[in-house]
Amino acid sequence: MKSEDKEVTEMGANNGTGMEIPVAAFTTYEQLQPQRGRKRSLYKNHVCPKCYRSYKRGSHLNRHMRFECGQSARFRCPYCDFLSKQSPNIYKHIRKSHPGFEIGYLDMRA
Which UniProt keywords apply (predicted)? Predict the structure, then answer.
């Protein structure tokens, strides 16, 4: 089905059957196409049993369960009160909020 075959109106789209479908009720054909040659997954199949957060990759769920879910923030910015459960977030915070300062973090568990 080509995108030019669909007639879009203010109410929605005419799918050829004479029925108008609300715009928010469907995903366009272009949005379902793979980007840069990769197959895109539309579903996140790995779900945390504690908080029901979902991830596309099992390794991301494992990291979440080991370091994030039910844990207090482990890393702190040495220049302000910003806390994070992952150290890369501290690096990004310092580069953005404290430009010119030395990049590092305080480990609350050590």
Answer: Metal-binding, Zinc, Zinc-finger
